[in-house]
Structures are given as structure tokens and as C-alpha cells.
Amino acid sequence: MHDAKSSALIDTYAQFPFEIVSGVGSRVRLRDGREMWDFYGGHAVCGIGHSHAAVADAIVRQARELAFYSNVVPLEIRTRAAERLVAFAGAGLRHVFFCNSGAEANENALKLAIQQTNREKIAVADGGWHGRTLLALSATTEEKLRKPFAKLLTESVRLKLNDLDDIRRIDDRVAAVIVEPIESIAGIVTLDPAFLAALRRRCDEIGALLVFDEIQTGVGRCGRAYIAGEHGTQPDIVTSAKSLANGFPVGAVLMNSRVGSRVAGGDLGSTFGGGPLACAAMLAVLDVIEREELIARAAQLGDRMRAALRIGPVCDVLGRGCLIGLRTTRPAKQIQAELFDLGFVTGTSADSHVLRLMPPMNLPFEAIDELGRALHWIGAGKEAAI
Q1: CA-to-CA distance for 191 and 180, rounded, in angstroms?
Q2: Distance (Å, whole) CA 131 – CA 135
Q3: Predicted structure pTM score
Q4: Which of 81, 125, 192, 270 is the most exposed place for a label (fewest CB within 10 A)?
Q5: Residue 266 burial (CB count, 10 A)
Q6: Residue 10: count of CB within 10 angstroms of its CB
Q7: 46 Cβ contact list (under 8 Å, min separation 6)
Q8: Do residues 339 and 271 touch, judged by C-beta distance below 8 A?
């Protein structure tokens, strides 16, 4: 394994104790030759698995035809990608602005809200994590990240999770309410449908925009294209990234007609946003999801994980689809380390007793069964045979 201390790379990331050299489907191979089931998916990015041939072929074909040209010229593939994405998303979303990442998508969504409402305040849900750019950081509630930049951040109202009474604190100075329908980094915390519906009503009452951050919940991962529109609650803006192009950097700000029709020339901009390689990868991902019926598959995998993984050190299973939290009876990092040794990549969260599972939507069922046996073995003190 490479020594980060001697590398030209800045040592800013806490890293897993192994190096991955390749991956196919839901399996990754390490430098020492071992293979592991990937229940982490590169942090919810590889939604259709590693090295998917359809995505690789689409990127190669596009690179040979036109690798890049900026937004100063129209590109058929960019127009087609936008039309395909809004058709896939539904929920009244009619327009899209392409960028490069989730943080950039959230930044632009909040800029639009501030610009269109002529207000400067943001309302967020406690535990929300929306990115490290300045407006996105204003909406992120992790104080460790916020503190060094406190003087630069926009004023925000932090709402108690699923507290209907607290919604009254959203006043007519608020430009946008931004929430994750399921807070992933917080530990797979689901926002109640009644809470989301009440946010929609309050935004309508005071003229604020409702933004769903679906960077991790979207693109089919939770058994729907996006959670937006579920139970009749339709946000004004949805942000998307992560698995949208299965590893090729891309972000998207999807918006309804009321918001999209008010965006004027020059209001938004991004040199690389909507580049032809990103659009080719995105179109291939959406093709695979529809052709292989992966939205339904994600829901089935979620049901299987909820049924099979409450075992050993796991006392509860949270979330849905391929965004699952395992609540553990002892620190999640300990369980994660033991699972590493047994051949499973998982993630942790801000909750020290929740492991996160964000596997590809075409994960084999056998991988869940093997993970269940590993958890049983860990719970039995490693005395039972897998």
C-alpha cells in the first residue's frame, strides 16, 4: 500500500486500510490479490456496479467523437441528456442545469432560491449534510466544518427533525428550505412524509423554495427514481450527483417550470457542466437502470437487507433500497474493521453506532446472505463457522 505521508497528495482523507486496484460489478480487488464485496459503492457512487461495460463503451465512443466543448455551443448529447433526465425524474421537474458535483448542485440550487426570492436566509434540518462550498456549508449542520468559516456563512434556521411545530420557525426571510429525504451521513435518518408535506405547505405559505438534496437518495437507489413526488410532496428543486454517471463527475440541478422559467441568461454557469463525456456516461447509466429494471431491484435488495441483516451485532436496520443503515450494539468502526477482514467494504456515519450500506443496485442476493453470515460470526465471537 502506498504511503500517504510520502505522497504528493495532501493527506486530508481518513482512508481504508487497503488499496483497491480494480473492480467488476459488486466486487473489488485489492493490491494483495484479495477480493471483497463492495457494500460502500465508492460512497454511493457506483450505482450500477464497477466497470460496467455500457458506461465504459459510451465514454470511449464519445471521447473518439468529441471529448469536450463548452456551453458556448449547443450539443445534441447535452440536450438529449437533459431531456432524458427530467423524463426519468418526473415529480413535475421540467428543467435541468448541469454542473460537476453534489456540492456544486446544492450551491447553485441555493443561489437560485436567493436570487429568485430576494432573501438570504436558509432553513435546514438538523443533521443535514449538503457540501463544503459556502452556501452548501451554510446548510450543513456539522459544526466542525462550519466553525472556521462562520463569518462567511449565510444565516440558517436549524429545524428539529420531524417536528411539525418547529416548522413555524420558517419565516418570510427564508429563501429556501433544503433537506435530504433520508439523511445519509447523519446515520440513515428518514424524514417523515408528514414532515416533508408540512415543509411544502409552509414554503407555499411564505414564498420560499423547497429543495430536496437527493445526491445520495436519487437515481433509483431508494426504489424510486427520486424520492421527490412520493406521497404527493413535490419540491421546487432536486439536486442530484453521486451515482448519476456511475463514477464520472457530474451534478444536476433539476427544477420545476416555476423556477426554471425565471432563470435568465448568465444566472448560472459551469465550464465543465454538461460536458459530452459526462452526458454520455449519464445516458448510459439511465439506459442500464431502465433496461435492467434496477429501481425495482433496489427495492428488493432493500427488503432483503432489512430481513437478513438484523443479526449478530446489528440490532436494527434503517433506510430503504440500497441506502441502508445497520445500527450496532457496539461502535460501528469496530464492526467495520472486522468486516474488512472478512471481505466486505462498508461505511460508517456521524452516528457512531450506524454502519452504512450503499451497494450497487444490481448487487447479487448472495452477497447479502454472505454478509449476514459474517455478521452472525462476529456476533458469536467468531466461534461459529461461516
Answers
A1: 8
A2: 8
A3: 0.96
A4: 192
A5: 6
A6: 7
A7: 23, 38, 243, 246, 247, 360
A8: no
Distance from C-alpha of 34 to C-alpha of 234, rounded to nearest angstrom: 45
Residue type, position 48, single letter: I
pLDDT tens-digit readout, 119-147? 999 999 999 999 999 999 999 999 999 99
Task: Using DSSP, state whether 117 is helix, strand or coil.
Answer: helix
Chain segment 330-351, per-residue pLDDT in tens: 999 999 999 999 999 999 999 9
Decide: helix, strand or coil at residue 157: strand
Q: CA 114 to CA 211: how far, in whole Å? A: 12
- Count other C-beta atoms under 10 Å from residue 14's C-beta: 6
The span from the first CA to the last CA of the chain, in angstroms, equals 29
19: how many CB neighbours lie within 10 A of its CB? 11
- Cβ neighbours of residue 61 under 8 Å, at least 6 residues apart? 280
Distances (CA, A) of 304 to 219, 299, 310: 20, 9, 11
Helix (H, G, I), strand (E, B) or coil at 171: coil
C-alpha–C-alpha distance, residues 96 and 108, integer Å: 11
The residues, any chain, with a CB within 8 Å of residue 137's CB and separated by 6 or more, are 130, 131, 145, 146, 149, 153
d(CA 379, CA 386): 12
**In terms of C-beta density within 10 A (0-12 exposed, 13-18 middle, 19 or more buried), how is residue 94 classed?**
middle
pLDDT value at position 2?
57
* CATH numbers and ranges of domains, the chain: 4-52+293-379 (3.90.1150.10), 53-291 (3.40.640.10)
Annotate 224-263 with b (16+ C-beta within 10 A) or e (fewer).
bbbbbbeeebbbbbbbbbbbbbbbbbbbbbbbbeebbeeb
